[in-house]
Structures are given as structure tokens and as C-alpha cells.
Amino acid sequence: MQLNVTNAQAIEVSEATFGSEYNETLVHQAVVAYMAGGRQGSKQQKTRSDVSGGGKRPWRQKGTGRARAGTTRGPIWRGGGVTFAARPQNHDQKLNKKMYRAALRSILSELVRLDRLVVVEDFAVDAPKTKVLLDKLNGMGLNDVLIVSDAIDENLYLAARNLPHVDVRDVQGSDPVSLIAYDKVLVTVSAVKKFEELLG
Q: What is the pTM of this model?
């Protein structure tokens, strides 16, 4: 299949990478797994056995007229432990490499179908200036965009750093969430070839 390139000749690309059928279930699974992997999972509270103190009973068992109490660290006491205390959890979800690559192929193909993938010969800025990049993107009619190249250009990265709706990634750094989060995905021809190498 052919992929249109802005202000240049169309390029021949792999049908498997940029023309596969959209698998919503697989893409959802990949997105959920990616988001789950970013969770810290370090939340923790103390149960009655974790709280310091409480070894000596506050008063004797019988004769005081008060309810019996064996510790001052039970859940009904101020300063006591939590009844069902939270424990650290690992939220990671397993996703096979084959499935992950298939999900990326599915996303790229859908971006092409929805006309959200913009291919350019090359994309760079001469200086790390936000205004220079902004003018360049405005000239192309892009404001909410992910820029993907085969290698991150430092000037481009620094220029985009302060723009809330612009992100710069290399091919290896592209993930399911970032690819679907932006209105448009701007990719260079070399990045397209790299995608084909990695996902083909």
C-alpha cells in the first residue's frame, strides 16, 4: 500500500503494519496494561499488629465496670490500627510481545484510516525555540500533535517541552497511549521505515 507524504512523493509501506484490521479489544488490553504498569502501587496502612505499642492491657479484665480491653491499638481505639489496611500491590498486567506489536500495528492502521497520521520527509527546528516550532506547526494546521522520528532531535525536544499539547518521541518510545492521545501523529519517513522494521 502507499502512504501519502506531505509535499513529497508517496511511499510504499507494508500492508501488515499500516493496513491491518482494527482490533479494539486488543488495543484496549494494551492500553490498560500500559497504564497499569505506570501505577506506583505503594499504598500502605497499618493494621493493629503493625502499630507501635499496645502490649500492656489498659486495665484489668474484671472489676472496673468498663468493657474488657486487651490492647489500646485495636481498630476502635484512637491511635489504633486500620481494620482492613491497604497493602502494597503490583498492578502489572502481562501482555505478550506479539500482542503488543499487533496492538501498535492496529493503532497505526486506524490512524491512517482516520487521516490522523501525517507523514513528512523530515521534521526539525534550527534552534531550541518554542516559538519557531509553534509557527511551524501552525503553518501545517497542527496544534494537538505527537511528533515521532527515528531519533530524538535535541532542539526539537527542547522546543516542544513547554507546549502542553505537543510531545516528541522516537519510534522505540512510542506507546499505545501516546499514539491515540493526540489529534494528529506526525511521523517522518525514516520513522515509518523504523516502525516497519520493529512491527513487520
A: 0.84
